[in-house]
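Schema walk-through. Below, the input block comes first and the output block second. Nothing else is stored per chain. Lengths vary across the set, and this one has 280 residues.
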Amino acid sequence: MTLNLIKEFCKKTFLCSLFLSFPLTLKALEISPWFYPPWEFHVGAEVKGNFFPNVNRGFNPIDYSSNNILAGAYVLVPFSDNWEVEAELQFERTSKTPFDFQSVALQVRNQILNDVASDWVSFSVGLNARYVPDKWLVDVAIPYHNLANFELNASLGKEFTSNFRWVYRTFVYFAVGQANRGYPWLRGSIDLCRKVHNKSIFTLFSRGYFGLGNQEGVNVDNFKSYARIKHQSVDVGLEYTYLFDIWGSLTLEYAYRVYARSFPERVNFFKVAYDIPFGF
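--- output ---
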């Protein structure tokens, strides 16, 4: 008993130390087709809150709500003109599960076309992998399919400039995923960005997530991940980013789930994130 307590204490201490070693605030893995300059490292963090009043097609119980807090950190490294690698670490607390390590992910992307240089559009492709511990897969608030989750993704975008600085950017993102168990899924995004006075960026976006499983009911108290669930969701939101002169950027975001099927519905999302670049 004493040995187990010591092991648990060491585990929590290690995870907290790893989290606090990053600047205190994360973002999801990068989806934009525009890359940072080579060896301009970006580190940062994010705190997210979301809550939902019900699970569409959920039962046992038929009404289930959850309040969730997610925090994490990332580092993104562009190691050439057209290659970048990113690592992400996430922690979460839900109504069912206390605050703990939730997932870790790694992504590698290649920029094939760049409209900032001479191409007509920007286009990138990538591959990411995410590990999620068993304990989270029984929680309907966690949107992953299994222990090991893999995605192939692509992003296509175009920017519009004035006086050699971009004013508008728009891009679409698409991903197909497969876990170590269950059915594949599709994810997509459409973003429209507007920069104002080189200090503020406003982004209007829509995100879709579609599991291709063969089950539609969600057994809340006997849940075993979304691996076999035919789930669907569409979120829309607005993001505001303030650009500091040399101290990176601060982002505020709100989104709302306008459609859900066999998935948490009517979800409100809030986010605060901070990103800071540094180079050699």
